[in-house]
Amino acid sequence: MNDSHETGHRLRDRAAFAVPSRVVKAPVLIVGAGMAGLSAAWWLDRQGMRDYLMLDAESAGGGNSRWGESPSGPYPWAAHYVPVPGGGATLLRTLLEELGVLHNGEFEERYLCHSPQERLFLHGSWQDGLEPELGATRTDHAEYRRFQQLLNDFAASGEFRIPLAAGARRRVDLDQLTFSAWLDREGFRSPYLRWYADYACRDDYGMQAADTSAWAGIHYFAARRETDEKGPLTWPEGNGWIARRLIDRVGAARLRTGEFVAHLARSGSRWRVTGSTAVYEADIVIFAAPSYLLPHLIPSQAAVAALPRRTYAPWLTANLWLDRWPTERGLPIAWDNLLYRSPALGYVVATHQNLRQRQDQTVWTYYWALAGRDPAEGRRQLLQRSWRSWSEAILTDLSQAHPDIRACVSRIDLMRFGHAMARPTPGFLQTLLPRSPLPGLYLANSDVSGLSILEEAQFQGVEAARGALKCLQRRG
What we know:
Number of strands: 18
Strand content: 15-25%
Helix content: 25-40%
Radius of gyration: 22 Å
CATH superfamily of the largest domain: FAD/NAD(P)-binding domain
Number of helices: 14
Distance between the termini: 45 Å
């Protein structure tokens, strides 16, 4: 399984696309049914504006919050949790209240991650939590304490907020060097701490600390320290739980899946959007797909050609169907399970949140950010390596902690994400995308800010919807 790369490559190569004869008119057209597009639709609905259509090239909506189904229940294909939002995250808390996750300031316990939450396979055995402890020296622990104090200071500064626009100021100097260089400068030498910092960058950004803006690396740790609530929030299908409820609100009549957009052009005061089955005429286009597509869709516009270019991280996700559980060594299996110095990011157990204490079958979702190489090379590897090659690499990695894993797995499904998320490289804060580069066109993807997290996608989607509503009001 993949993103629609064949059609995307045709667009990249400027292949000709047939122009459908059917014309559909709508005041607002949302391109992309990921979390940003769904958030834009959510906000339009809240404001009583329901005359819109949503297009998505994939066979189902959800974007990076897609999910799948198995006999043992649903499972995520990508984003699989939401950090518990603090009091300042008003948009996300409003949505969670509507979805029944938050009641009178209290989060529903069944949606908070059950224990055990996280474990790390290190030096031949499992330890509790993801920060390496086994074998750590006094020097390692002292560095951890100093690192945490620095993060507390950064958090207290008011700069590192979610969304980025809520930050009080920006330390441009931190965005001019890599996270690794900043750790070097601050004298952090512990291999355990350096590994953990690198893991964090691969986890949220799909890139190594050596390539990540120091500002973004610090943001990962400092931006969510305002709440003491035990978390995160998660579901068997991960963030697909949220996506499917937002998709249900959009409804089948307004969501057109399998509809690839090949061209956008101004037609008088309106937009003419060429899809694969129809031509859409709209007053407003909310573009919630990644911004790198725009120069291919609107090739003749100088404002589009001048948009800052981002690079995007390639990812591989696998869902392993297990007919039985492997033999464990030490701690019991957790929701999130990571192997120290693995090239991948470990796996989450999709059945972890089930109320039944034990069931024979389960699904593990395994994440592999192809960091540490040129993104284009990572994409080539995604396409060139076979299912068997990737599956064998995954099983070999897991066998370090689970020697009998091959006897447990009955099926492996793969998903290749060529452009999973924008990469916050040094200087990304100086390349924020304009909200509306052309009249009636509003950008909504999280790559507007450069951080691909759910809260940012929601914020950008809502901001685009607000801009669209104001534009419609002006037009009367």
